[in-house]
Amino acid sequence: MTLSVRPQPLLAVRDVEKSSAWYCGVLGGASAHGGPEYERVNVDGQLVLQLHKLEVGHHHGVFGDPDVPLGNGFAVWFAVDDLEAVASRVVASEVQTGVHDNPNAGHRELWVRDPDGYLVVFAGK
Q: Which of 91, 99, 106, 120, CA to CA, is 20 to 30 A from 59?
């Protein structure tokens, strides 16, 4: 039996439209849903990230307490084909660790913070 897994991470955010614009811009992606409560970010027609308004429950209940800082101890990780292109779309103030070699993983990485403070890592050649 072959197990097929396709990650579809979902982040709870304070402003879905602002986060969508940031992720679409940095990743070169596109909105695949749109709206103030939920978003699907696609890159080359593939879902890479979902965004959900923190305090909206829909059918499943709320994701978290809006008074608690988001992203503590969590990183969103993207493998990208063109790390330099991603780096060129990131604002300097968002950078935590600039493009550098990770000798343990054998690739280059860029570590940034998104509009909600989530740690976002882009890894590539």
A: 120
pTM for this structure? 0.91
Helix segments in 9-102, DSSP class H:
16-27, 83-88
Please answer whether residues 125 and 108 qualify as being in contact, where contact means their C-beta atoms are separated by less than 8 angstroms. Answer: yes
- Of the candidate ranges 58-62, 63-67, 104-108, the one whose mean pLDDT is the lowest: 58-62
In degrees, rounded to 5, the angle at the alpha carbon of residue 52 between the alpha carbons of residues 113 and 18 is: 50
Pick from 9, 28, 30: nearest CA to 90 = 28
- All domains of the chain in start order, with CATH: 10-56+69-124 (3.10.180.10)
| The Cα angle at residue 97 between residues 23 and 72, in degrees rounded to 5 | 65
Q: Could you tell me which residues are beta bridge partners of residue 46?
A: 43
Q: Which residues of 102-124 are buried (b: 16+ CB within 10 A; e: fewer)?
A: eeeeeebbbbbebbbebbbbbbb
Count the helices and strands in the chain (H runs, E runs).
Answer: 2, 8
